[in-house]
Amino acid sequence: MKDNDAKRLSRLTAILIQLQSKRLTTSTGLSEKFGVSVRTIYRDIKALEQAGVPVVTEDGKGYSL
C-alpha cells in the first residue's frame, strides 16, 4: 500500500469515527483537523458514500450519519 493510500484510509476512518461521535461536522472543520483542503474532504465524503456509509449532507450546515 502506498503512503498516500494509507494516509487516506486513516483519514477516512477518522472521519467516520468523527461522524459517529458528533451530531454535525463541517467540511471546514474536518479540513482543518486533518490538514487537507476542503475539496479533499468532499472527495473523502463521496468515497464514504460510495462505500455504503449513509452520510447525510445538510446544505450549509455540515455532515452527519
Quickly list its features.
62% helix; two-stranded antiparallel sheet; mainly alpha; Arc Repressor Mutant, subunit A; 65 residues
Which shape, going by the Cα principal axes? globular
Q: List unreliable stretches of 5+ residues.
A: none
Secondary structure: helix percent: 55-70%
Number of helices: 3
Please, what is the CATH homologous superfamily? Winged helix-like DNA-binding domain superfamily/Winged helix DNA-binding domain
The chain-level mean pLDDT equals 93
Strand order of the largest sheet: 1-2
* Count of distinct strands: 2
Q: Could you give the order of the helices and strands?
A: HHHEE
- Derived structural class: mainly alpha
Question: What portion of residues belong to β-strands?
Answer: 5-15%
For the largest beta-sheet, the strand count, sense and barrel status come to:
2 strands, antiparallel
Q: What is the level-2 CATH architecture name?
A: Orthogonal Bundle
CATH topology: Arc Repressor Mutant, subunit A
Describe this structure in words.
The protein has 65 residues and is mostly helical. The protein has one domain: Arc Repressor Mutant, subunit A (Orthogonal Bundle). 62% of the residues lie in helices and 9% in strands. It has helices at residues 3-21, 27-34, 38-50; strands spanning 56-58, 62-64. Strands 1-2 form a two-stranded antiparallel sheet.
